[in-house]
Amino acid sequence: LGLDLEELEEIEEDAGLGNGGLGRLAACFLDSMATLGLAAYGYGIRYEFGIFNQKIVDGWQVEEADDWLRYGNPWEKARPEYMLPVHFYGRVDHTPEGVKWVDTQVVLAMPYDTPVPGYKNNTVNTMRLWSAKAPNDFNLQEFNVGDYIEAVLDRNLAENISRVLYPNDNFFEGKELRLKQEYFVVAATLQDIIRRFKSSKFGCRDPVRTCFETFPDKVAIQLNDTHPALSIPELMRILVDVEKVDWDKAWEITKRTCAYTNHTVLPEALERWPVSMFEKLLPRHLEIIYALNQMHLDRVAALYPGDIDRLRRMSVIEEGDCKRINMAHLCVIGSHAVNGVARIHSNIVKNSVFKDFYELDPEKFQNKTNGITPRRWLLLCNPGLADIIAEKIGEDFITDLSQLKKLLDFIDNEAFIRDVAKVKQENKLKFAAYLEEHYKVKINPSSMFDVQVKRIHEYKRQLLNCLHAITLYNRIRSDPSKSFVPRTIMIGGKAAPGYHMAKMIIKLITSIGEVINNDPYVGDRLKVIFLENYRVSLAEKVIPAADLSQQISTAGTEASGTGNMKFMVNGALTIGTMDGANVEMAEEAGEENLFIFGMRVEDVEALDRHGYNARDYYERLPELRQAVDQISSGFFSPRDPGCFRDIVNMLMYHDRFKVFADYEAYITCQGQVDQLFMDPREWTRKVIRNIACSGKFSSDRTIMEYAREIWSVEPSATKIPPPNLPRD
User: Fold this and answer.
1) What CA–CA distance (Å, rounded) separates 496 from 562?
2) CA proximity to 329, closest of 314, 307, 339
3) Within this chain, do residues 172 and 303 fall inside the same structural domain, yes or no?
4) 367 and 423, same domain (yes or no)
5) What residues bear N6-(pyridoxal phosphate)lysine in this entry (predicted)?
6) Residue 706 lies in a domain
7) Bridge-partner residues for 91, per DSSP?
8) What integer pLDDT is reported at residue 145 of this predicted model?
């Protein structure tokens, strides 16, 4: 057709249907489940508008709507034949024939299927996303005097459910539309699962399957954080009210079917819905949650008689001025397995977040360290590196990443060292050209590409990175003739539109860049670049070009991180704290092959006990004081000297994430990075060792563990015969 595939690829919009790591993790999991031959479905919402596109205007983030479906989506197939009703509002009738949820408003859920192919195994799984549609009698069934036009226009109200993704990462905003979205995806999905269960006979004699005894043997539901927590009361409602299963039996079935993955320990991220909202929107589910909670508390009271405080701590219902439902507690009591997403995080889950629940049911709690798919994050985004690896060890590593260990044999192979360095340099040149073409910024491709890309959040400590950039700048200014290791510091990521501090951090980064990048004394020894509109398609370009990966969250705050793994497999070295999966990366590669610095979880806890006083560090460390004073005085914002007072005030008086406490260790560690970068051969040997030790962080390994230890299914390496060949 005379079309260029690469050109088309560049035009295609990202399906940005999630916020950050959690949604991206699910996408990697779908790829791995298909590649491992598991009969698995990914369910979600087909948002008309995904995560906003980020524009930087005058140094500030400006959001614009992500109209990703504007030119159509060739990968999806609408399946109107599987459309399902979802009910909201109404009231509950307790009748002799059982409980009835009546006078509800109905919204239709229209499924759209996207194929998920496994890697060269002829397996194609399905991702099914639901879109909200108003029924044709919407607002017309009401015995109303009937403004027909108004009623048809009101269809938008129902269809708004799947209109837009809430753009908060690691933050809970208790909006009714968000709760509607959560119930919408759950109710549609559970009906779909049960329809599929009933139509599969499994050797059963009934014309229609009515016995749910075997349901947990045939169905596993993995809750990706608490957002689909309503699966638990919804499955109970269907089993008890609709299918007339005995309550205790239904509870057994529900618990054996559901498992819950916790993705964060930040208190502001935990979902706590007002009871009043449930009362109105989902009255039957509220009754079920009350009954489940009563059962749960009766058990706790029997085991710990008289321990009233324990009952209060463990209740699904939080008492107070506004009664709330703690969705995490609901997930824990309603699941047979609860897991964190890296070893350190799973330990925090057991020993602090859900400590009481762990004491009650220790066998429930597991760890499943996150992973990434090597198909997207090595083969597709870094073909040059994949090629030289395949040259040395064959192609089997693509579906068995542990085979990268074989690269350890080539750590002293001069030709391989040269090849690895050459591929990195080519990726850097290519990214530099991309930056010049699209953002009109010229960078020095022989400089160290120092990259921190992730959502902007105080706990991720982009501010620590800023303080290092300012310190570097001040050192160059104070001795311009001294030789410095040239760096291009790239920071990218979106801030939630309502998160004031995160937006200020972006403005600070762009302002620092403005000063440093235009200072003739600095030249091309230091540049600070804000990468606009960071998203998967940009990650695929920047990660293969990175020399240094920054993973610098306060110990105990980043549950796992997955960007850290992408950088490791793509030949960047990591500077990071002992947090999340960094701990296991250091364990795999050897701590001496990462740049580990700063407080451990124990140190953070000790500092909390003694009280963190930022001013101590400010007064003791002259370079820190100089940097903070520059931010404060308007050195980086001459036209608005008070611009950054909120940032400085936070850092000095209420910094939950203790930026100053790690400043000194971070600067020292960055000095060690510079030292090694001046020895390209040693640097590249460390890179090879990192790549060779990254095999554990394949999502294939993660999914094998979920399959065997939570879902009780065996992955299969069997290649299905292609459709053009007869089976057997």
Assistant:
1) 20
2) 314
3) yes
4) no
5) 566
6) no
7) 102
8) 60
Question: What is the pLDDT at residue 580?
Answer: 98
**Separation of alpha carbons 545 and 530, rounded Å:** 16
* Structural domain count of the chain: 2
User: Does residue 350 form part of some domain?
Assistant: yes
Tell the burial category of 362 from Cβ atoms under 10 Å away from its Cβ (0-12, 13-18, 19+). Answer: exposed
pLDDT block averages, 10 residues each, the chain of length 728: 91 95 97 98 98 98 98 97 98 97 97 98 98 93 76 95 95 96 98 95 62 96 98 98 97 98 96 97 98 98 98 97 97 98 98 98 98 98 98 98 98 98 98 94 96 98 98 97 97 98 98 98 97 98 98 98 98 98 98 98 98 98 98 98 98 98 98 98 98 98 98 91 80
476, part of any domain? yes
Q: At 98, list the tokens.
A: 């059982």
Instruction: Give the domain extent around 562.
Output: 383-697
Give the CATH number, domain containing residue 641: 3.40.50.2000
Distances from the Cα of 185 to the Cαs of 85, 95, 171, 231, 593, in angstroms?
Answer: 11, 29, 20, 9, 44
Torsion of CA 321, 322, 328, 333, to 10 degrees: 80
35 touches 119 (CB < 8 A): yes
Q: Compute φ and ψ for 259, nearest 5 degrees.
A: -140, 150
Whether residues 351 and 464 fall in one domain: no
Question: Is residue 130 assigned to a domain?
Answer: yes
Q: In 513-552, where do the E strands start and end?
A: 526-531, 548-551
Please give the Cα distance from 59 to 62 (Å, whole number).
Answer: 9
Judgement on whether residues 389 and 360 belong to the same structural domain of the protein? no
C-beta separation of 133 from 83 below 8 A: yes
Residues 582 and 518 placed together within one structural domain of the fold: yes
Residues marked as catalytic: 263, 454-455, 460, 562, 566
What does the pLDDT read at residue 509?
Answer: 98
Q: How confident is the model at residue 203, as a pLDDT?
A: 55
